Amino acid sequence: MRRSHAIVLVSGGLLAAGAVAAMSVDRGPGSQTCSSDSTLTMNVTEAGPDIVDTAVAAGEFKTLVTAVQAADLVGALKSPGPFTVFAPNDAAFGKVPSSAIQNLLKPQNKADLQGLLTYHVVAGEFMAGDVINKSSMTTLNGQRLDIAVRDGKVFVDGAQVIATNIECENGVIHVIDSVVMPKGDNIVTTAQSAGQFETLIAAAKAAGLAGALSGDGPLTVFAPTDEAFAALPAGTVETLLRPENRGKLAEILKYHVVAGRVFSSDALSAQSAETLQGQRVRIGLENGQLRVNGANIIMNDIEASNGVIHVIDRVILPTS
């Protein structure tokens, strides 16, 4: 917690708060000089406990602190930040099977543990009043937390915020009653589960891009549905899937992919984005509909572990 107190400086005198010699400063004609009995009061902020030390002192975050240590995140959460931490207490971790927690704490699962913990941390200091005015917040994990207010209660990805505004030297802690989980499926797995991207997945495999779309990323995919591919001239998909057309197919697919995790609000603000194919796509609102190169974005911000998917209703083609 940041602690401020006043130190009173008295010219020529001593106070319990400390003593200094006051100086008369000549500021030129018309200036005023401090007299021997003048006083000056200034506020001094003392360094208080950081996020980690605050959590340790609270006594209700033992599992969280153990996890932070196992994930080698102590140094990060002791850095200047500032950070906002949505901190599950021990009771929240108690809802998770102990075997799952013990498994995450194993050294070989450090990356997964880091991904989980950073999903609870947002860069910047956001007090409760700031949080309730947001619909989502991007975490250090890269994925977004959904914020909702229902019946006067605040929820973060479904976890209720049960205590707020625990101020620390490098940020603020809000306590939540459940552990929130980031998306675990990558872009390809997410697309497969959706059931409407069979042609896209087949094309990605044929073009040798399925591995890239399953990798660390992050990537943003403007994903045409099966109906979008079916709307192409007859025989187009079959031709593109032939081995001799692999290069051309890869160029078309890479024109649907942007490096980074670009949510729809960011895309709209940017108005365009450079694709992995090299050319840029245009993004904007047309008659109230979000579009990319004229294709309607019919579903947006589908999160995956390694990026985000925006569903589009037609295949977009780069210029030749």
Summed up:
The chain has helices at about 50-60, 60-70, 75-80, 90-95, 100-105, 110-120, 130, 185-195, 200-205, 210-215, 225-230, 235-240, 245-255, 265-270; strands spanning about 5-10, 15, 20, 40-45, 85-90, 120-125, 135-140, 145-150, 155, 160-170, 170-175, 220-225, 255-260, 270-275, 280-285, 290, 295-305, 305-310. By secondary structure, the chain is α+β, with helices and mostly antiparallel strands. A hairpin with a 2-residue loop joins strand 8 (about 145-150) and strand 9.
Question: What can you see in these coordinates?
Answer:
- The structure is a single chain.
- The strands form 4 sheets. The protein has a 7-stranded mixed beta sheet with strand order 6-5-11-10-9-8-7. The chain has a 7-stranded mixed beta sheet with strand order 13-12-18-17-16-15-14. Strands 1-4 form a two-stranded antiparallel ribbon.
- It has helices spanning 51-58, 62-70, 74-78, 90-93, 98-104, 110-118, 128-131, 187-194, 198-206, 210-214, 226-230, 236-240, 246-254, 264-270; strands at 3-10, 14-15, 18-19, 39-46, 83-88, 121-123, 136-138, 144-150, 153-156, 159-168, 171-176, 219-224, 257-259, 272-274, 280-286, 289-292, 295-304, 307-312.
- Mean pLDDT is 87; it is low at 3-47.
- α9 packs across α13.
- By secondary structure, it is an alpha+beta fold.
- Helix content is 29%, strand content 31%.
- The longest helix is centred in the first third of the chain and has 9 residues, at 62-70.
- The protein folds into 3 domains: 3-46, no CATH class; 51-176, FAS1 domain (Roll); 187-312, FAS1 domain, CATH 2.30.180.10.
